[in-house]
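Board notes, transcribed. Complex of a protein with guanine.
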Amino acid sequence: MGAIRIRERALLQVTEPGLIESVLLPGDADYAPSLATLRREQAVVELGSGEYLLPGFVDLHNHAPQWPQLGKALDVPLEDWLDRYTFPLEARYRDEEFARRAYSSLVAAMIANGTTTAVYFGSAHLPATQLLAELCLQAGQRALVGRVAMDAVDTCPDYYRDSSAGLAIEETEALITGVGAMPGNEQRLVQPVITPRFIPSCTDELLAGLGEIARVTDAHVQTHCSESDWAHEYGLARYGRTDTVSYDYFGLLTRKTVLAHCNFITCPDMDLIASRGAAIAHCPLSNAYFANAVFPLRRALESGVRVGLGTDISGGPGTSILRAMADTVVMSRLLEDGVDADIPTASRGVSGSRVSSMEAFYLGTTAGGIALGLPIGLLSPGMSFDAILVDSAAAESALTLWEEFDSTDEILQKIIHSANRNNIKQVWVAGTSVKGPV
Ligand code: GUN
Ligand code: FE
């Protein structure tokens, strides 16, 4: 992980399909003439004092249908939460009008919070999931969208279960075709994702069938992996191997896979994930409620695993990747120090676990882009112009910058820990303004 470079008065030139063509600095020979020309053509957005341009945020794990539940239903373990709250809510998305209402509100909120790319689980309904893809495209949000597949009789309720593995496989294929064929999606701003819910929800036939689709189509894959004690042990009891090894067996661990959580993965699991080039969505806030442990982030990074951040709405009751960055730092400190004061200091935590605010920022931007293999998350030539403009002096801002005290690095730390959506004045995806002036 390299250092974060903060550039003052940089001039980014963006071409027609929304790519960054060049980044000029005041010392460069072309800078003054280029700026003069762009000003004359009124083709430049100039930042005011206290305004900062950042790469857009990448949310690697977000359950779109759980949006109406955000902030509640946090009182029971994962397996009860699914049965008691989440499956009944997700089942409602057979009603497309309900889906339209919920998904429109979600996508608008994500963009308002600066999430330029989101990786969404949909529900187990093809029409509602296709609608989610269309709403992302209409709103201009870069998105990866999956119809969740779940056919296991033991763990999925009668009212919310794929009637067969064959149906889930067919509808996954139909979503891949449908998203590819959406008018206006020629640049593939929205892409389909193969989405087995998690091992307890899926039969072998379904996992194998989805693995075959991954092989044939090279589409992205997303699922949950070794999330909680219960989920991890369920996979071990069923197969005698970890979730990671099982997903690999079924052809679901690819360069384009995002595994959510992974709190209980072993060192060999990390090596396997790294060797396949798959990525982990670290969801720090959700893990605090449902995972029974803190994700060993530092160890994963040291094993060469690609890691980015996820909100895990609504397991994680936060909308913003800025919040996920701050929570990443907090959880890493709890893991490092340990939490039980009755345990002696030396053996209380896992030393060397902490990550810095800057590392967390990297995870929520650049690393998210790398995880997905997309040219996003970095304001450099050749990358898509997916960016946000932070206004530190916005109304209702909680940011307190002090010019005489704060270095540019420190300003970024303050943005990570105390900016909110009111500070996000404008958002661009692929060069198009999707929040703020058009
Ligand atoms: N495991 C299976 N389904 C889910 C879900 O919806 N959220 C989380 N956090 N874990 C899951
Ligand atoms: Fe999840």
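The pocket of fe (iii) ion (ligand 2) is lined by residues 61, 63, 224, 260, 312, 315 (CB under 6 Å). The chain has two domains: 11-53+381-435, 57-372.
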